[in-house]
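Same chain as my last thread, 120 residues:
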Amino acid sequence: MEKKNIILDKSLEFALEIIKYSELLEEHKKYVIARQILKSGTSIGANISEAQSSESKADFIHKLKIAAKEAQETEYWLMLCNKLNCYPPNHLLPIKLEEIQKLFSSIISSAKKNSSNISS
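reply #2:
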């Protein structure tokens, strides 16, 4: 039986929600922000997916850190949208993103710890 990859599953689910939200923004003619959110929000899962076939533990950590930066950027764009009254609100996406960010912290921390144990 294949082991579940929670962060990969959550990032895929998040990307699908980001696509829907970006389409909603486009319906409201908020094209620039829609494009930014679409790019950074879907890039999270793409980088996590890429990390799954990394060449080393250091490469794995590096790719997850890139995904974490994309998550941080997405958080910024979502915060802007939720603060502007003329943008459609979305309060669920930041919650889902926070779950992913907590997983990043845990996984990166564990990977670094395991990496240093191997080196010792």
